[in-house]
Amino acid sequence: MAVNTNAAGSSPAKIVVLGTGGTIAGRATSAGDNIGYTAGEVGVEQLLGPVAAFQGAGVEFVAEQVAQVDSKDMGFALWQQLARRCAYWLEQADVAGIVITHGTDTLEETAYFLQAVLQPAKPVVLTCAMRPATALVPDGPQNLLDAVVVASTPGAHGVVAVCAGNIHSALDVQKVHSYKVDAFSSGDAGLVGLVEEGQVRQLRPWPNVPEFHVKNRPVAQAVSAQVAIKNRVMSESASEDWPRVEIVLNYAGAGGLVVDALVAQGVRGIVVAGTGNGTLHVDLQAALLRAMEAGVAVVRATRCVFGRVLATPADAIADAQGAFCKTA
Ligand code: ASP
Predict the structure, then answer these.
(1) 186 near 168, Cβ under 8 Å?
(2) Alpha-carbon distance 225 to 231, whole Å?
């Protein structure tokens, strides 16, 4: 894309925009159709065009199409590719930050993954849309512009998501609405900040490494697990070889069938989304304890949209506490 120079004529700050698809790149046959579109059709250069023109001098944009998918189909191979492209661009001295256009459905998972693996000292900003690019009133252009503002903000760092003028930490963001344009929440943690008329109003710190990952174990152990995971993602090893971790749910009438089947298939870890404060049906819990005896790592989270599991001394299965790797 065209290179802009700043007023002083010195090298502009480079913002890299990586396209992965989603509704922001979605196309419908009618401008009035907000749901019957195909995600991941419009190229990232095309999305960026009006934003780059508006943003004006002082910024150089690089657009790269990493993928063109509906994020419901996001997978580990693409995650690996995305993490590697981010790592490459983050290492370039003239890059101020990265923006990633992404579908809303699994945005929070990609955000969490990238924060876990990269823990970037520069901003990596995921953005999205709830209306396709062809809509009468698409939300993507404003979201992309806001994301560029965040990626260009001095001092910004870590992985965040920007949608509807809100800045969410990768560690807290959740899609909580299936249709509204403001579809995301950071729950109890609250927003990192807001984007208002091209300015960031910061409300709390950018995502930070130390508060992450280390709650369940000594810092040194957590850091070495972190490094091992990063090395694995960045290495040549295929994502199909990553240890398989599955998610199961508690609900009225839940049993052990799914857990037993997963163990028989060689699953290495299970995250159980319990009811309430991580409670489990007695039959599901029995199956999970059998899985643990067979060497499968198990942690308990909650299916509640807000809150987290609070541990008690009587717990048979440890709670996740938001940590992504309780056992290596
Ligand atoms: N299914 C779409 C996706 O996640 C939804 C969206 O982007 O809003 O790619």
Answers:
(1) yes
(2) 10
Does the structural domain 243-328 have CATH classification 3.40.50.40? Answer: yes
> Among 3.40.50.1170, 3.50.30.50, 1.10.940.10, 2.70.50.60, what is the CATH number of 2-202?
3.40.50.1170
Ligand 1 contacts CB of residue 22 (under 6 A): yes
Instruction: Give the Å distances, CA to CA, from 186 to 151, 161, 175.
Output: 19, 10, 9
pTM value? 0.91
Regarding the beta carbon of 103 and ligand 1, being less than 6 Å apart is answered yes
Question: How confident is the model over 48-60, as a mean pLDDT?
Answer: 84
Please list, in sequence order, all residues whose beta carbon lies within 8 angstroms of the beta carbon of residue 211, skipping any fewer than 6 positions away.
Answer: none
Span 181-215, pLDDT tens digits: 999 999 999 999 999 999 999 999 999 754 445 45
What's the CA-to-centroid distance between 304 and ligand 1, angstroms? 22
Task: Please state whether beta strands 199-202 and 269-274 pair in parallel, antiparallel, or not at all (unpaired).
Answer: unpaired
Distance 70 CA to ligand 1 centre (A): 6
Is the shortest distance between the CB of 128 and ligand 1 below 6 Å?
Answer: yes
71-118: per-residue pLDDT in tens?
A: 999 999 999 999 999 999 999 999 999 999 999 999 999 999 999 899
Asked whether the domain spanning 243-328 has the same topology as the one spanning 2-202, the reply is yes
* Catalytic residue annotation: 23
